[in-house]
User: Fold this.
Amino acid sequence: MIGVNGEIYNDKSELDVVKTKFRTKSDTEFALRGIEQFGVNFISELDGEFSLCLYNRKTKSL
Assistant:
């Protein structure tokens, strides 16, 4: 589960690292799919003004 507040500036069409079909055009989904594919280090690839909270249901941790 993820919560994002703010704006991610990366151009999703130019940042061709997330190989998935998106259901929305939201920054939140983009961040979540990137984290799912590459792990939390993906966050360091994001450019913008945002805060992000990620909850892992399996480990019950933030």
